[in-house]
């Protein structure tokens, strides 16, 4: 190295422009047995490993854990299998909103109780007393059940993760108001254009969910957690207040615009890696499909082979009439398959959607799937089943990025009509490609933003400098209900006083008038 280069290096170091890196022990906890959520969390884990950190994940084994020597998996054994066959698609479509609310909350209690009684959980709790984690990231989509792990490891900085966009109760827990006047509750089939009666339902059901969580389900979860962590466990609310930041799967520009406080970091689409390549055989199929390709995939939690027999027959008959190549993620053997239909038990969905020959995505409407389709500009036929899928598909329809087809209404005629609507009407392709360009036009990849803020927490030993005061106010105070009630009472009091004064004045005038007449 010449003396000039050496001088340049020294000056660069002294100026502080050299990127800082450090190796930390990071723990990620999750008690939600959903493959899609685990995919999202594992992308975060992989990115942190690539930065030189040691990452340990405590959670259900939904996907492969063979990743890297600095990646360590502690499995909550059996949690995924315990819920794998609870519902069929036909049963899910019959679950109403209130049933969904109760189902999710009861499942949160079940998952908490199951998780803390696994050998994997006990293995982590038996780590050496002086073992140090530099940071804990906890998936709070279901509940705060595993947050007391931070007390076991002497309260390292903690942050929250959720791949479930930004549900109202999580948003409000970080002091971020969820304006139900125009933001639909994520279990409802509404858009941000609600009439009065829809806003009434939206408010009532969202608040019912919050109320049930507050008065019953959170107490049940705390009881379960305390039985596992011991009586010296602090209240779950205390652990929730210690969370420095929330890293959430919200995509500005695609999801409905909303206010976001500084302690919430939206990193929607962080799981999307446009540089990944297709396997060679699928690459060849995609390249050779001159009429385009249609992808049919129901995500990671629903199985195409569990669809009703008459639905599968109708789908195959429609696909057989098309000129396009169809890739169908189907988990078992299927007979009488048309020549243009290719059946695979597993398909690399993101990489397929990225191919320029992709024309249409038939989807269940999961949060990851709809974001991927928007990012790569592929129109959607949405067939929602439960939880947030109706919300996601309503979003797609409201933005003219695709159409909705109810599973209960799926027939040969309705399915073919939906496909013809998308392929024969260019407005869907135009709208979603325009959105795709906007989503790609960012200063940095979403995963880079997530990693920056995670490392920011470690560099500063956690931080609450971004917390708004609203995080520690009750909804009664935050919504100014107390002020409105005071002003209402004051207005009533003033009205009453004015009425009494006016009454007395008029009474006096009438009395004087009668007196004058008598005289």
Write up this protein.
With 519 residues, the protein is α/β, with parallel strands linked by helices. It has two domains: 22-270 and 445-469, Rossmann fold, CATH 3.40.50; 280-440, Rossmann fold (3-Layer(aba) Sandwich). Helices cover 47% and strands 11% of the residues. The protein contains 20 helices and 13 strands. The protein has helices spanning 3-15, 35-50, 79-83, 89-92, 97-115, 119-125, 149-152, 168-173, 196-229, 236-242, 280-288, 309-320, 349-353, 367-376, 389-398, 412-424, 426-440, 446-459, 475-478, 481-518, and strands at residues 25-29, 54-59, 71-75, 135-139, 158-162, 246-248, 264-266, 293-297, 325-329, 341-344, 358-363, 380-382, 402-404. The protein has a seven-stranded parallel β-sheet with strand order 3-2-1-4-5-6-7. Helix 15 (389-398) links the parallel strand 12 and strand 13. Helix 5 (97-115) packs parallel to helix 9 (196-229) and helix 14 crosses helix 17. The termini are far apart. 38% of the residues are buried.
């Amino acid at each position: 190295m010449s003396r000039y280069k050496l001088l340049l290096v020294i000056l660069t170091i002294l100026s502080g422009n050299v990127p800082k890196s450090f190796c930390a022990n990071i723990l990620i906890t999750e008690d939600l047995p959903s493959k899609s959520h685990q995919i999202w969390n594992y992308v975060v884990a992989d990115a942190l490993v690539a930065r030189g950190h040691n990452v340990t994940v405590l959670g259900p084994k939904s996907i492969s854990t063979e990743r890297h020597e600095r990646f360590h998996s502690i499995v909550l054994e059996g949690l995924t299998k315990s819920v794998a066959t609870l519902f069929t698609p036909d049963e899910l479509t019959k679950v109403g909103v209130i049933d969904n609310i109760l189902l999710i909350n009861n499942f949160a209690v079940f998952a908490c109780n199951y998780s803390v009684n696994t050998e994997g959980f006990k293995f982590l709790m038996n780590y050496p007393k002086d073992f140090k984690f530099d940071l804990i990231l906890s998936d709070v989509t279901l509940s705060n059940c595993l947050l007391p792990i931070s007390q076991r490891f002497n309260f390292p900085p903690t942050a929250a993760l959720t791949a479930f966009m930004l549900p109202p109760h999580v948003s409000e827990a970080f002091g971020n108001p969820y304006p139900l006047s125009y933001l639909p509750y994520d279990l409802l089939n509404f858009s941000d254009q609600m009439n009065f009666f829809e806003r009434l339902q939206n408010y009532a059901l969202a608040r019912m969910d919050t109320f049930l969580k507050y008065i019953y389900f959170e107490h049940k979860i705390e009881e379960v957690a305390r039985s596992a962590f011991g009586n010296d466990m602090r209240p779950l609310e205390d652990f929730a207040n210690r969370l420095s930041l929330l890293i959430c799967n919200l995509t500005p520009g695609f999801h409905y615009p909303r206010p976001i406080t500084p302690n919430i970091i939206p990193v929607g689409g962080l799981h999307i890696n446009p540089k990944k390549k297709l396997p060679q055989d699928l690459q060849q199929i995609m390249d050779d499909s001159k009429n385009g390709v249609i992808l049919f995939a129901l995500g990671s939690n629903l199985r195409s082979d569990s669809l009703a027999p008459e639905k599968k027959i109708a789908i195959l008959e429609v696909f057989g009439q098309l000129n396009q190549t169809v890739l169908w993620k189907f988990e078992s053997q299927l007979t009488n398959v048309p020549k243009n239909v290719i059946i695979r038990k597993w398909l690399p969905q993101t990489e397929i959607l990225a191919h320029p020959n992709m024309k249409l995505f038939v989807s269940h409407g999961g949060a990851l799937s709809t974001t991927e389709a928007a990012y790569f500009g592929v129109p959607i036929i949405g067939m929602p089943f439960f939880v947030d899928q109706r919300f996601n598909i309503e979003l797609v329809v409201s933005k003219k990025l695709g159409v909705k087809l109810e599973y209960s209404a799926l027939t040969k005629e309705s399915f073919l009509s939906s496909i013809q609507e998308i392929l024969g009407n260019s407005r869907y392709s135009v709208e979603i490609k325009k959105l795709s360009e906007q989503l790609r036009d960012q200063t940095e990849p979403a995963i880079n933003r997530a990693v920056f803020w995670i490392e920011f927490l470690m560099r500063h030993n956690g931080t609450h400098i971004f917390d708004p005061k609203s995080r520690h106010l009750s909804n009664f105070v935050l919504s100014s209900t107390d002020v409105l009630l005071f002003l209402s009472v004051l207005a009533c009091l003033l009205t009453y006083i004015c009425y009494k004064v006016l009454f007395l004045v008029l009474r006096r005038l009438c009395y004087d008038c009668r007196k004058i007449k008598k005289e």
